[in-house]
Amino acid sequence: MKYALYLKEKVIETIINIYDTKPELKLVQVQHTRKDFVGDYTLVTFPLLRYSKKSPEQTAEELGKYLTEHIDEITGFNVIKGFLNLELSQDYWLNKLNEAWDDEYFGIRLPNKESKTILVEYSSPNTNKPLHLGHIRNNLIGYSISKILEANNKNVIKTNIVNDRGIHICKSMLAWQKWGNNETPKSTGLKGDFLVGKYYIKFDQEYKKEISKLISQGKNKKEAEQDAPLIKEAREMLKKWEEADKKVISLWQKMNNWVYEGFDITYEKLGVDFDKIYYESDTYKLGKSIIMDGLKNGKLIIKKDGSIWADLTEKGLDEKILLRSDGTSVYMTQDIGTAYIRYKDFKFDEHIYVVGNEQDYHFQVLKIILQELGYPWARCIHHLSYGMVELPEGKMKSREGTVVDADDLIENMLTTAKNISEELGKLDGLSDKEIDKTINIIALGALKYFLLKIDPKKNMVFNPKESIDFSGNTGPFIQYTYARIQSLARKGKSKKIEAVNINEKNLKLDLKEIQLLKTIYHFTNMVKEAGETHNPAVVANYVYELVKEFNQFYHDFNILKEEDMDLRKFRLKLSIMTGRVIKQAMALLGIDVPEKM
Questions:
Q1: Are 21 and 67 contained in the same domain?
Q2: What phi and psi, each to the nearest 5 degrees, are found at residue 356?
Q3: E-assigned strands of 4-107?
Q4: What is the mean pLDDT of residues 320-327?
Q5: Residue 385 and residue 446 share a domain
Q6: How many whole angstroms separate alpha carbon 536 and alpha carbon 542?
Q7: Structural domain contains residue 286
């Protein structure tokens, strides 16, 4: 956008010279020309009519003529309903290509000592079940946003809060105690998170049986859910856990360790990581302490049963429970404690929670409560609310065992990627080692791209087969284009065609070549926009547009067979630069690209 600012200054000079008055900077609106119009930058003339005292079209014509005569790189203009579209010269775009070529970090602004610190929390799993498809979207959004913010000169701390305590954990523990027969991951051959998840489902099955029995005896549904023996035992186990009962703590530690080992395997498969992992079992006590202080200071209220609440009615919300009557904590308790300790650890400038949109109200309340408790940094909290992801078969339910586990989905993606790639001959000529590596890159790329190309705010349906398609807006299509460019570069090298020492004065570029140049240049703007909007889909859809432009260019023009030596070198240079941007953009999405396919 540097040139846009330069143009604004020139427009102000022009208005002073033509209309003898200086306009307000905010009224000079310069933006990139829409793709369906001819031009590079567009000036909106309507706010400037107060200075010209003429029609929008007349004003645009006068400004366009003056700017074309006085700025060398502006070679032409056109006017459409008061919008002045300015066209820049070939030399301007060639200079931009050369600048990008010489910049190892083109489009990226790396963090430095002055960078703001942003914490990004994602994953946030419960230790009562494996990671599933919903967790995959969460992890991929969180990881990609972290990479995008780093590329926008931010010091990013990737954090995870493991929900390793609470009634849901006790349900798995109790079910294993009752029906587990001392099974372990080693004795069953199951990943630890799968084994523990199995008993979470078992609890729900047996709990429903008890509810049905109580209802048949005359209780209503709500009474039956409260009075079922299993849920009472689970609540008692939670109470014992918070009282540090040795047997309960020992079982909890054993089963959680099984789960952590399972999670680590899944995170490695997904290619995501964390700089700092927090555990609810460590932070909930701090949250309870902060809540008790808030009660003493008159910020919170206590009810007759001893439960502690935040009264948010004056804020247009309702009352929010923070501690139950038996003294046990709720999610809000640990979130208060976790936020406090994170600020103490990192003094963040912004804290982004990547959490599904069903928790919108929770994070609205968390921010308000922290502010009411006197923490000024609470204003830095931001909830990156994302929509739900489903399969074509419909919604998933973990308690009923109808979720698609992350590991199973990844294995399915690998199998599908292998079958489709073999059918299309994409693996021909590769060694066994290269085939395994390429299949993994294609499968994970397909999964990640499909989930990230949709705006995080939107609900979506993930179709594994649709995602592995070598045409259309998919990861494999983009990866294949990158591999094609690398093949082109290798052939150029073998023919000793170097993408340097080009006599650019002799070049006569086609509009499609210039359009590809422009698309490469706009990478910088896309990275900035993605960072400002916290939206990986901006990068995903940009790289798809870039790939489409390149494939059109590749189809329409000779590259290595071009007779004109300078044009041949230029086209190779343009191709290699496209590949560099594809790789950089895909890296921001956490996606690898293959050198061969």
A1: yes
A2: -55, 155
A3: 29-32, 41-44, 74-80, 83-88
A4: 91
A5: no
A6: 10
A7: yes
List the beta strands (DSSP E) in 247-365. Answer: 276-279, 301-302, 308-311, 319-323, 350-356
Crossing angle (nearest 10°) for helices 56-70 and 2-19: 110
Q: Are residues 297 and 329 in the same domain?
A: yes
User: What number of other Cβ atoms are within 10 A of residue 321's Cβ?
Assistant: 15
300, 322 Cβ separation under 8 angstroms: yes
The whole-number average pLDDT for the span 415-438 is: 90
| Residue 396: pLDDT over 60 | no
CA torsion, ordered 96, 97, 100, 102, to nearest 10 deg: -110
Do 424 and 513 reside in the same domain of the chain? yes
- What is the share, in percent, of the chain residues with pLDDT greater than 70? 98
pTM of the entire predicted model: 0.91
Over residues 238-254, mean pLDDT: 94
Contacts of 369 (CB under 8 A, 6+ apart): 310, 312, 320, 322, 332, 336
Start-to-end CA distance of the chain, whole Å, equals 36
* Span 471-516, pLDDT tens digits: 889 999 999 999 999 999 999 999 999 888 899 988 999 999 999 9
How confident is the model at residue 401, as a pLDDT? Answer: 47
Question: End of a domain among 361, 390, 419?
Answer: 390
Instruction: Answer yes or no: is 395 within a domain.
Output: no
* Cβ–Cβ < 8 Å for 242, 236: no
Quick one: average pLDDT of 392-413? 70
Is the domain of 180 the same as that of 212? yes
Tokens of 503: 């006599």
Using the structure block, give the residue that is written with the tokens 């209309």. 19
320 lies in the same domain as 347: yes
CA distances from 57 to 45, 49, 53, 54, 76 (A): 8, 10, 12, 8, 16
The domain that holds 24 is classified in CATH as: 3.30.1360.70
Report the domain count for the chain.
Answer: 3
Q: Taking a C-beta distance cutoff of 8 angstroms, is the pair 160, 274 a contact?
A: yes
pLDDT the model gives residue 470: 87
Instruction: Show the domain range for 433.
Output: 406-588
* Best CA proximity match to 329, nearest among 163, 208, 491, 204: 163
> Phi and psi (nearest 5°) for 158?
-85, 120
pLDDT confidence bin for 399, thresholds 50/70/90: very low
Highest-pLDDT range among 118-132, 390-404, 423-437: 118-132
* Average pLDDT of the chain to the nearest whole number: 93
Residues 262 and 156 in one domain: yes
Instruction: Point out the domain boundary residue: 390, 423, 440.
Output: 390
Q: Is the dihedral of CA 13, 14, 17, 22 positive or negative?
A: negative
Tell me what pLDDT residue 540 has: 98
Nearest partner of 275 among 328, 342, 209, 228, judged by Cα: 342
Q: Which of 183, 197, 137 is nearest to 590 (CA)?
A: 137
Q: What is 128-174 written as a DSSP string?
A: TS--BHHHHHHHHHHHHHHHHHHTBT-EEEEEEEEB--SHHHHHHHH
Model pLDDT, residue 354:
98
| Shared-domain flag, residues 384 and 424 | no
pLDDT in tens, 262-307: 999 999 999 999 999 999 999 999 999 999 999 999 999 999 999 9
